[in-house]
Design brief:
Layout: H1 17-47, H2 54-79, H3 85-93, H4 99-123, H5 140-163, H6 174-193, H7 199-209, H8 217-237
Length: about 250
């Protein structure tokens, strides 16, 4: 078996039809997720003046979990169902996706989040997406640590259910498990920093709504957490003698 290694990718991968299809799948899946997720926040604000209640938090968490479940499910067989630049980064660190394909995924995911936010603003009569902000009394470094820990749990779950070569039938419940851990993390971190765990999910609404306060937290935290999860699961959990798992349409990446 060849050693695990970071793969840059071949030049022809950049124009390969499979790469284009995978990027399109990531674009559409991310747009589906962000539209439903951010839309649930705006909808709650439309119905109630005070949305900072336990019921409101539960509604948003469930909406995010269901939206991510669907987004991962519809793109899983085409792109691997990342729907998140941090997940792509974790897979890149573990050598499960090439750098060339990762760049395509990142561009597609960010564009999907922007388009979803624009559509949401148009469909709601001009309501500005709220995006993410820190809760009262929450410092940037506390929020950063929270994002690191929550994203670590998310990406570790992705590795265990969708990437691990010994996952077996566990792969069939990957979208469900990934959606559940996202919803659980929102119940935990929502009151503190909104619980993003996804730079694209934070970037699209921030750009369209033009809300940039503490925005760096929602990039650095998820990337650190995802990188740690990729390194630990890939090199400490997966046995060295196990065969490398392949993404459905990316055998050329390994």
């Amino acid at each position: 078996m060849p050693p695990r290694r970071f793969a840059f990718g071949r030049t022809e991968d950049a124009i390969h039809p499979d790469t284009m299809r995978a990027a399109l799948a990531e674009f559409l899946a991310t747009a589906i997720f962000v539209f439903a997720a951010e839309g649930s926040v705006l909808s709650l604000g439309k119905m109630y003046k005070d949305t900072s209640t336990a019921t409101g938090l539960l509604v948003v968490a469930v909406a995010h979990a269901l939206a991510l479940l669907a987004a991962v499910a519809v793109s899983y067989n085409i792109s691997g169902g990342h729907v998140n630049p941090a997940v792509t980064f974790g897979a890149l660190i573990g050598g499960r996706v090439s750098f060339v394909r990762a760049v395509y995924y990142w561009v597609a995911q960010l564009l999907g989040a922007i388009v979803a936010s624009l559509l949401l603003r148009a469909a709601t009569g001009g309501m500005r997406p709220l995006g993410f902000s820190l809760g009262p009394g929450v410092g940037e470094w506390h929020a950063l640590l929270l994002e690191v820990v929550m994203t670590f749990g998310l990406v570790y779950t992705v590795y265990a259910t969708a990437i691990d070569p010994k996952r077996g039938h566990m792969g069939t419940i990957a979208p469900l498990a990934i959606g559940f851990v996202l919803g659980a993390n929102i119940l935990t971190g929502g009151p503190f920093d909104g619980a993003s765990m996804n730079p694209a999910r934070a970037f699209g609404p921030a750009l369209v709504g033009w809300r940039w306060n503490h925005h760096w937290v929602y990039w650095l935290g998820p990337f650190i957490g995802a990188g740690l999860a990729g390194l630990i699961y890939e090199f400490l959990i997966i046995p060295a003698e196990a065969p490398m798992a392949h993404q459905p349409l990316a055998p050329e990446d390994y």
